[in-house]
Amino acid sequence: MYHQLNFAPIDGSGEGSGIAWFNRPGRLLGPHHLIALGYIILALVLRAATFGNPVVHTDEQLYLLFADRMLQGDLPYIDIWDRKPVGLFLLYAAIQAAFGPGPMGYQLIACLFAAGSAFLIQRLAQRIASRRASILAGASYLGLLGIFDLASGQTPVFYNLAMLVAAWLLVRQIETRDPARLALRGAAAMLLIGLAIQIKYTAGFEGFAFGLILIAVARQQGARPLTIAALAGLWSLCAALPTLLALGYYVWLGHAAAFIDANFFSIFQRSAFASSTYPELFKNLIVLISFWLAAGISALRVRDAGGGFGTISPRSFPYLWLGAAVLAFLGFGTWYNHYLGPVLVPLAIAIAPALDAAGHQGKVWFGLLVAMPLLASPVVTATNIAIRGNAAEATHVAAIIQAERGNGCIYVHDGDTALYRLTQSCLPTRYAFPPHLATLEEASAIAGGQDHEIAAILARQPTVIAMVARPLGDNPNLPGRALVEREIARSYELYARPMLGKRTYLLYRLRPGPRPPGA
After folding, report:
1. H/E stretch holding 450
2. Residue 476 in 3-state DSSP?
3. Read out DSSP for 178-200?
4. Does residue 154 share a domain with residue 96?
5. Are residues 368 and 420 in the same domain?
6. Which of 209, 237, 381, 511 is deepest in the core (most CB within 10 A)?
7. How much of the chain, in percent, has pLDDT values that exceed 70?
8. Quick one: which of 310, 321, 128, 329 has its CA closest to 210?
């Protein structure tokens, strides 16, 4: 079934060469450069439809709003609230500072991160497959990103690259068995994982698995127990360092409690999600059925070729990583499609040997593992844009709101966070992400309660209230929505019903004159 399995070591020569080509100044357009360039072009083609779209994904709207407010002096967790790590917001703020306002900057940088990840997938996949198969594995990853709603700037697009560089360092240590570099490579890998954790805390699950693999490698390469214990302490500190630095900054500002509550406690105060997440889990796993089969068959083939999983080797490493990533995904309890982002990296590496199959079987695997994702990706992306809206529609809705906003704030009760930024509105609440107040999953995580916060917002008399005609989410906060509707009946009037994608917005403006009794 497999006519070629290339297990060449990383020695700087032949198809199995590593990154030694970086040190060859005369090869400005060597094969690795061409592969990297090909991935950049492919990523641009697959993701171009999202460029400049401010409503491409609800999470990214919040990240960009955070960046905008931080550049205006707001402090995360104090002036504007979410539970994501501050490193993510710093990344978005740095991109916005460099490229200007709007989504184009972060979307282009995310495109480069995706292409860079595909390139490193290719380099790691070439440890267990031919160059041709490894190139196809990297292309498959780019296609899978679009299928799982990762065609723009979601968090895994960024931190997957850090995890891949960390994985590369581990593989280098496994292959070279250089005791002098064990501590340094391990420290660098865990520091990269620490940076990934500061983009999304769930990267810590994979980071823990990487730490265990590092300890196993140290033991395998003859390190003594006391040395291993010291190394484990060093590596753990490196993984925790970025988060400790962020915490230290908030301690210095006097806001340690707010940082700790948002980053570490609030996630446990969120209620369980609706049972509809189980069909979502089933759907996501079924979409990848051919990939699970290919990875399983490849794992058996690699093990039969001498890469048994009892010993950590470059051949077994991708499958150990894949197992850890799958367990981390299943353990979340919420299974949105983009949560599969971390799984896609080791999965793309793991399927590479299947792409070396010859004849009819090879064509079948190519169709399922490469052609299908590349063809489906733009279709899924276009469908998502049709549902959520495009740049022109978002700009139109924002203009209608801006015409009535005056000098006051708008309040987006249930809808797109991007409307705050597009209208250049002040924020009526630090809970600017509408689901924090409009869905019951967050009921226990909001200080003082959702309805108390909604009442406080309405008391400030936002000049425009925007909400979708039908509540979003599986578990809407209907009492909170009723509170908004009662205030609308007393003090507001409906003045527009624009469409944004497939959703109808209800826009209400504050009626002039004195408010009715009891308002």
Report:
1. helix 450-459
2. strand
3. -HHHHHHHHHHHHHHHHHHHTT-
4. yes
5. no
6. 381
7. 91
8. 321
